[in-house]
Amino acid sequence: MTFLVRDVQELVTILDLIEQTPALCARLREKEAEWRPKIVARLQKTTSATDGSSVIANVRVAAALEILWIVLGQWSASDGQKNLGNLLDLAFAAFSTPARQQTDTPLYGLRRRLPRRCRSG
């Protein structure tokens, strides 16, 4: 990330401009849509066959890109005062922490076991 913070104030200004300009924000998201398939393909080449599902790769890339934008927003809001590398490490650590134990039971199967008061619909 060193190349991004060579001129902290310039990057903060650019990020603020993008955030405040709908057309620039949309263009950034459009570019992200172009990058995503390439990143997914690269990720699938570097993961094991058991972990190479297209769905998994797409979700990981989407989450990683969204984490990046959130971190850049937080960093920009601090006028570049917070350590960008530390923010990225913290954000990705939060994402990589398992939310639940891996089981053979799909999440949709949990609905049937919930008490009636917990069910919606």
Instruction: Provide the gyration radius in Å.
Output: 19 Å
Helix amount? 55-70%
Tell me the overall shape.
globular
* Contiguous runs where pLDDT drops below 50 for at least 5 residues: 110-121
Major β-sheet profile: none
Beta strands, count? 0
What order do the helices and strands follow?
HHHHH
**Strand residue content:** under 5%
- How far apart the termini lie comes to 47 Å
Regarding quaternary structure, what we see is single chain
Overall average pLDDT:
79
- The helix tally amounts to 5
* Secondary structural class: mainly alpha
What does this 3D model show about the protein?
- This protein is an all-alpha fold and 121 residues long.
- The protein has 5 helices and no strands.
Short description:
The chain is mostly helical and 121 residues long.
Descriptors:
121 residues; mainly alpha; 5 helices; disordered C terminus
Can you lay out the helices and strands and say which pair or pack?
Elements: H1 8-20, H2 22-46, H3 54-77, H4 84-96, H5 110-113
